[in-house]
Amino acid sequence: MTLHFDLHAHSTASDGSLSPAALMQRAQAAGVDVMALTDHDTLEGLDEAAATARALGVTFVPGVEVSVTWQGITVHILGLSVDAHNDDLSQGLADLRKFRDWRAEEIGRRLARDGIPGAYEGARGFSSGRLISRTHFARFLVAQGYAPDLRRVFRRFLVHGKPGHVAGEWASLEDAVGWIRAAGGQAVIAHPARYRLTRGKLRRLIGEFSEVGGAALEVVSGSHSRDDYFTMAMHARDFGLLASAGSDYHGPEHPWIELGQLPALPVGCKAIWKDWHLSQ
Fold first, then answer.
1. Is residue 280 pLDDT above 60, yes or no?
2. H-only helix segments in the chain
3. How many CB atoms lie within 10 A of CB 240?
4. Sign of the CA dihedral 218, 220, 223, 225?
5. pLDDT tens-digit readout, 40-68
6. Cβ–Cβ < 8 Å for 122, 153
7. Angle at Cα 7 formed by Cα 186 and Cα 43, nearest 5°?
8. What is the mean pLDDT of residues 165-180?
9. Cα angle value 29/15/170 (rounded, 5°)
10. 249 in Cβ contact with 29 (< 8 Å)
11. Alpha-carbon span 263 to 257, nearest angstrom
12. What pLDDT does 279 receive?
């Protein structure tokens, strides 16, 4: 039997719009057999998601998406099959959330200086968990009419050179992979094509990731093109890394990305789940 995997998705524990339970329900309805929850820098939703997945007969993979600063840019490292109660991982993520708290307040201050008062409080109102992300600011700004959609509000207010941009100060690549491995998980570079790195710089990132114990590349991603699938598959093979697949689903307000609607990994890839012992 062919199993359908989706190993990258977000809930209201970070910047998704569905609760962990509702996310698992949508995954089951979409025909996903093996589903991961990988919220940004938090493990908060894992227990709820696991209980719902178990009741629905969906195999659940506890995960996280760790924010990393590498050579001055932000990259994301997924941790799959992590122990949510591991002290190293929990403390590392707690430190990242402290920075997130300060960053959210600073984004609010910068937007206020640009003539947009109340943005921090507005963003908090769009957050169902304790974490306030740029996406919550974007939702507030769209609701206030500053841009028609999330993509354009990011471009106008929240990226480098715009009024609400605050540079990230995240974990090192070595620390992030170390926390994931300490928690018994496998580290995966999320959506590697999305960083728009030159070929040489991307291969330096992958090489350093491999050297510190990284396990896989997210070859198939909701933000990758068909050409990206094959390019990332080649990089995975060159570095002896496994291949993962995930939609990076954030909610039904992004209809161009749906849970489980992913093509098969390119021929020649070794799937990260190949040696997993899967059970509901």
1. no
2. 20-29, 46-56, 87-113, 119-125, 134-143, 150-153, 173-182, 199-211, 226-238
3. 8
4. positive
5. 999 999 999 999 999 999 999 999 999 99
6. no
7. 70
8. 96
9. 130
10. no
11. 13
12. 61
- DSSP category for residue 40: B
Is residue 1 packed enough to be buried (19+ CB in 10 Å), middle (13-18) or exposed (0-12)? exposed
Q: For residue 1, what pLDDT band results from cuts at 50, 70 and 90?
A: low
Pairing mode, strands 59-70 and 73-80: antiparallel
> In terms of Cα–Cα distance, which of 230, 174, 169, 231 is closest to 197?
231
Tens of pLDDT, residue by residue over 72-125, are 999 999 999 999 999 999 999 999 999 999 999 999 999 999 999 999 999 999
Quick one: tokens of 178? 């170390």
| Region of 80 on the Ramachandran plot (φ > 0 left; ψ -120 to 50 alpha; else beta) | beta
Do 29 and 18 meet the contact criterion of CB atoms below 8 Å apart? no
> What angle, rounded to 10 degrees, do the helices at 173-182 and 87-113 form?
140
Radius of gyration, CA atoms only, the chain = 18
In single-letter form, the type of residue at position 117 comes to P
Please state the φ and ψ torsions of residue 165, each to the nearest 5 degrees.
-80, 130
Question: Per the structure block, which two tokens stand in for 258?
Answer: 């749906």
Mean per-residue pLDDT for 254-274?
93
Instruction: Say how far apart CA 11 and CA 270 lie, in whole Å.
Output: 28
* Residue 214 CB partners (closer than 8 Å, separation 6+): 77, 177, 187, 188, 189, 206, 241
Average pLDDT over residues 180-185: 98
Q: Residue type for 229, please?
A: Y
Contact present, 208 and 241 (Cβ < 8 Å):
no
